[in-house]
Amino acid sequence: MEKKRGGGSCVPSLRALRCYAVMFGLCLGLPSSAASPCKRKPVIFNFGDSNSDTGGWSAGLGIDVALPNGRTFFHEATGRLCDGRLTIDFLCESLNTSFLSPYLESLGPNFSDGANFAVSGAATTPRDQPFSLGVQLRQFLLFRSRSPLLLSRGHANLVGEDGFADALYTIDIGQNDLAAQFRTLPYLQVIGNIPTFIEEIRFAIWSIYQSGGKNFWVHNTGPLGCLPSILVAAAHDASDIDELGCLRSRNDAAREFNRRLQSLCEELRSQMKNATIVYVDVFAIKYDLIANYTLHGFENPSKACYNNGTVCEESSRHVSWDGIHYTEAANSFVASRILSANYSTPPIIFNFFCNV
Fold this sequence. Notes:
The chain has 11 helices and 8 strands.
């Protein structure tokens, strides 16, 4: 993905939250289209990397992300580095809202439900390098300042003033920071640089809060050491392999990143009046999927479906799509666990922001 502290918003009791989950039909599977109603129009602004990029990298750099990417659900390439839907897509579906248009998309975007600033390859640092979290933040602030004005002039498919205040701001970034560091630096130096990454996330959340945002949904980073591409490319010895066959050093770094990210969320709750910050333990969800893949209906998670130009026949049994990114089936699993609220701190259900 802690209780609210200090000046943060009040959090319902765990018993009440469980009652809400029953009311809204949440369960271990994805909810039906009618299971997660919103009292008002849901608006989402997403920031991150390829784990939640719905086409920003493709649009921004003019790169055609060709089939077999997109083959499972869309039956065409959509700019997603996946065979189908991403976790963010399933989260949007749970609210009966449309998939998020990439901010960089110039061909027929619809921003009335929010916008996706995530771009594949993005990291928190360096702040000014396209398309880092800092650049995504600046893009949002420009979008924030211009949208109400353009709406007043008759432009459509944008977000109004109330939409920004009531929106959910989702953040899923950090994997590329760790991966890039390990290419040139030893473990201890990587660990020593993690506070810099966390400070960039702090800056982004605080800046959005100062612009009027009050609802934040923060995903931690997944088990980097279990990605098939990392297992193949990273130099290591037997002592660095854990009980699941993953690289211990990469996963330990991810855990340290997540520990500091959770601490940041705790700290910001005490400082940001009337704000709600939900920390989601995606690492635990993905690690459980890898550790118990047979139980969850998958095959060997260290084997990618799409590898060196060849593609498997049935991607629904694979965890990894291309060695770095998850398949639609795995993303569906991750989304279902997120929607259960069992991995969220505090344990608030995903549609809280459009029902308060």
